[in-house]
Write a structure and sequence with these properties.
4 strands, 10 helices, 38% helix, two-stranded antiparallel sheet, 259 residues, globular, mainly alpha
């Protein structure tokens, strides 16, 4: 907007270059999107609400790790068909001061008391279900512990590896995701809404001979939400609130018992 303040509004950059007489920059690949440049910070996700959550932290001088956790938490709410608190996480963190890249592998492991016989799909409780959707294929979720490992190392001011920037507590970082889950958000589409529907149909219905009325990923009518529909997930809001106090909010207590 600032760049073209004295110019008409154009539908895309190509139209601007064609009408302004300005030579178009050479881009070594076909693209319908304008390149984005910045002088301070940048974030990118598959959902505008997640990008906005991270951008708010970066705009207030928070560090990139806090912003990334905020974005991941929002994605778990608005795009549960792609990511969530029941999954894993991986991160590469670049420390500009030390000029060093460090990684965290937040992938869960097999339950401590699991055995090979426990993993025999032939004894699956629902033998006709596709094996990849069996509970026996699910490792202990590593995402929440990964978020906390990242936070403890790069966001806690007492950590020797803490990155510079304004300090945010974990409840503050998770606040946007909690608010969206509690108060509702418009379901993105069409890719997200279709994948959401397909996920519920593939992973929920076979286990229950239908979709149960208390499924947290369906609306009050018992069906997956459609594009543009305002959807609330109060149970996920409650889980994220517990996670804000520490990883034990997920791996112990009522959440762990429910899993």
């Amino acid at each position: 907007h600032t760049l073209f303040r004295q110019e008409p509004i154009f539908a895309n950059m190509s139209e601007y270059f064609m009408t302004s007489g300005t030579p178009a920059p050479k881009i070594p690949y076909t693209s319908r999107r304008s390149p984005v440049y910045c002088t301070s910070h940048m974030s990118a996700t598959s959902q505008p609400l997640a990008t906005a959550a991270s951008h708010r932290i970066l705009s207030a001088s928070g560090n990139a790790v806090a912003a990334a956790i905020a974005a991941a938490a929002v994605l778990a709410v608005v795009e549960p068909c792609s990511t969530g608190v029941g999954g894993d996480m991986f991160a590469l963190v670049y420390d500009a001061t030390k000029k060093k890249v460090q990684g965290i592998t937040g992938c869960g492991r097999l339950p401590a008391d699991a055995s090979l016989s426990d993993l025999d799909l032939a004894t699956c409780d629902v033998p006709d279900i596709n094996g990849k959707f069996s509970g026996k294929m699910v490792t202990v979720p590593g995402a929440i512990k990964g978020w906390w490992d990242l936070y403890s190392r790069y966001c806690d001011p007492t950590s020797p590896d803490a990155l510079p920037g304004k300090h945010y507590s974990m409840p503050e970082i998770l606040s946007p995701a909690i608010s969206l889950a509690r108060d509702g958000f418009p379901v993105p589409g069409p890719i997200t809404s279709n994948a959401w529907r397909d996920g519920v149909e593939a992973q929920v219905r076979p286990h229950h001979s239908g979709i149960p009325s208390d499924c947290p990923f369906t609306n009050d009518s018992g069906v997956p939400p459609k594009q543009g529909e305002v959807f609330k997930n109060p149970e996920l809001a409650r889980v994220l609130s517990l996670v804000g106090s520490g990883p034990e909010g997920f791996y112990e207590g009522s959440v762990a018992s429910a899993i």
